[in-house]
Amino acid sequence: MASGIMDKVAILSMGCSRFGERWDIGQEELMREAYAEALTRAGIEASAIGAAWYSSHYDDIGAGKSGVPMAMALGLPDIGVTRVENFCAGGTEAFRGAVFAVASGSVDIALAMGVEKLKDTGFAGLPTATRGTLAPMYLPTHTNPGNFAQLARAYEAVHGIARQDLKRAMAHTSMKSHANAVRNDKAHLRKPITIEQALQAPLVADPLGLFDCCPVSDGAACALVTTPEIARALGQAEPVLVKAVQIVASTGWEAQQQGWNGAYVHTTRQAAKAAYAEAGIADPRQISLTELHDCFSITELVTLEDLGLAEPGTGWRAMLDGRFDADGAQPCQIDGGLKCFGHPVGASGLRMLYEGWLQLTGQAGARQLGAPHSALTHNLGGAPAQNVCSVTILGL
Amino acid sequence: MANIIRIGSCLPRLRLERRAMAQAMGWLVPGAGAGRGTRTLAFWDEDSVTLAVAAAQEALGGDSADSLTFATTTPPFAEPQNAALIRAALRLPALCRTQDATGTPRATLLALQAALEGGEPALIAAADRPVAQAGSTAESRMGDGGAAVLTGPGAGLFAYLGGASLSAPFLHRTRASGAETALDWEERWQREAGYQAQVPPAIAAALDRAGVAAGAVDHLILPCPIPGTAAAIARLSGLTKATLAGDLAETTGDTGAAHPLLMLAAAMPRIAPGQIVVLAQFGQGATALVLKAGAGVVDHPGLPALDHGIPESNYLKLLAFQERLDWDRGLRGRFIVQEAQSTAYRNAEALLGFVARREAETGLIRFPPRLDLPGEDWPLADRGGTVATATADRLAHSRHPPNCYGLVDLRGGGRLMMDFTDPGAADLAPGDPVRFVFRVKDIDETSGYRRYFWKAVRDTGRGL
């Protein structure tokens, strides 16, 4: 019987580049920006790192596939670098690899890095992705706004939510994240918006308007993980511990059979259930803060329910009530989230963990919450009907 | 000898108003938009192959055929054989003699004559989506459409009594291989030295072989875009009591290879059992076939699609749909259709025939089928389904934005993310019934390569 990952691995340090339209630098420089911060905060030499994991989704655009681009960019000390890709959950996938390596006893310190250089693609929004040889022959030409607009339409239909109510709840979701990001000097978008602005934005995929969609960004984030004992030996009296890491990939059931009603994300529910069991959490509403995958405002509303932070069909109302605002009972996206911190795909999972780590160690500056004891991060890669979902829980 | 068992047809929904053509191009070409009424306009994902498939589905009515001829002057592919794709889409047996017949719209009646005289169950699927110079009379007169006929030994709509074809090096229209538009020679010469000189001898020879007197012919079906010419030919041929079939000029326009069959379908409500019909066509000679209506004609619906068009007043859609407008597609429109032909062939039954698999162990219906699991073929093309989720996506590339798609619950089990097509696709919502149509999936801008797949359209219950 597996005993799970709880309390076996600590976060020694993290780093994160400034996100945004980084016309000034490339993928290698982005990685070095995040890596330098992590090394400095950890107070270790690069030679202490025993293995590394590297996440990048559009890597053929940035630096080239394989682990070599990262080994070269960072000048790593002749160690194994494993390149991973798992849609928007890639950053968490890299983190999981590093965590497992430490937990196995193979290495003392492991590095997980996620990076994306999206603004060199020329696209507004994510570039057109390759989907193998067979899928393009039958699947529609789709975009993520189109995929998640279906989630919104199903959500309002299944729960009988009026369009104007849903639009206002989605607008509040984005307004809240914009407000939070004003206090984050690494965020991509740092301008507050009003609900009316969001409501009046042009449609991208009905009912999702421009402000319901997160931007795509350049950015990198990384983690150095180690054992709790080594973390303490390096001076961390109360290190941030990994309580759970769970990843679930769709089996095709939702997209190929008729049981799924389209108004929730099956993998999120499964990953959350497994993570809560692994971390021994009976009531997820006790978690101090959440960083979830708000690629679209509707994703945030539905995910709040799938994570058990709101009852199914009520997340939109709780959002309007301010429960997930910075001063609400369960602050969500305190760093601005994907919506405003930005979304460099392969880095986003590590960016969320970065915020969780900052908050739990009291280093979040102007946006520091009181005394958080736990943080949950969630990634959703792909479409509501077919995706990879990760849920990670950190705690003291 | 065989008989005509069934006739099928397919008209695009859009009807481009000639008035709009005149408004758009009349300042430049005085004769633009010549004629009255409308012409059919194929949607961006309809071409001669898809129109032929839709018409052939109706003509087959669940029956099979030993051979398939695709008659067209506008085949999407110079290579490969287009009929091979049509056969696969129709799921006719692999033991089927397929061929493309091209070069003249008369290819349809040439193939039909051969089929009727050959005796075997044969399918002739005819369709055209012609292209003419912007503002030309030809552009205004032409239309897009498909029609098909199933022949065989059984009793059907018409008994074949006899026919004749003559050939002439009469080059009233020329278009070199690879050229987009044709050059038409003077209309008066076409009428007098062409139609009026070549069609009557073909009719005479056909009637002679059929043993039917000219005065006994009840209906003449002869596509001819030059006004008054068909009547002149009836007179010249001694068809004293024959009714001229309507030429559909003010609704569909001249649909080329499909037109004799579309005119015949439209004329069906006026054809009574026992009547004699001459079906004729012109082009580098002429073909005439003499038919005798059977009892089945009274049940034929005619051409109901004529009454279910959608008026279109934007001439630019014709240029955009025919890929003749260098419009700003954005980065998302610049993608290469790099077909992995080995993948496509391995999955041809699924992709072209639209066949899922019902897995033996679980009973689940899955598309695409898992080729390594035992189970039974589960054809989807005629099943239809219900929209489960839907979106109208303004970011995704589309030749008719927004790009509409969603999950479709397949009748009988299984689910698939599908494109929604045709005007009005954005209105499809969860719970709406849909049926499936064979359409162009993607077109490669640089090579012209196109792939086909099935899409969902609103099921109105009329089969239109």
From TrEMBL, chain A:
One of its GO terms (molecular function) is acetyl-CoA C-acyltransferase activity. Keywords: Transferase. It comes from the Bacteria. Residues 21-227 form the Thiolase N-terminal domain. Residues 265-391 form the Thiolase C-terminal domain. Pfam families: Thiolase_C_1 (PF22691), Thiolase_N (PF00108). This is Acetyl-CoA acetyltransferase. It comes from Pararhodobacter aggregans. The lineage of its organism: Bacteria, Pseudomonadati, Pseudomonadota, Alphaproteobacteria, Rhodobacterales.
From TrEMBL, chain B:
It comes from Pararhodobacter aggregans. It comes from the Bacteria. Pfam families: OB_ChsH2_C. Residues 380-439 form the ChsH2 C-terminal OB-fold domain. InterPro entries: ChsH2_C, Thiolase-like. This is ChsH2 C-terminal OB-fold domain-containing protein. One of its GO terms (molecular function) is acyltransferase activity.
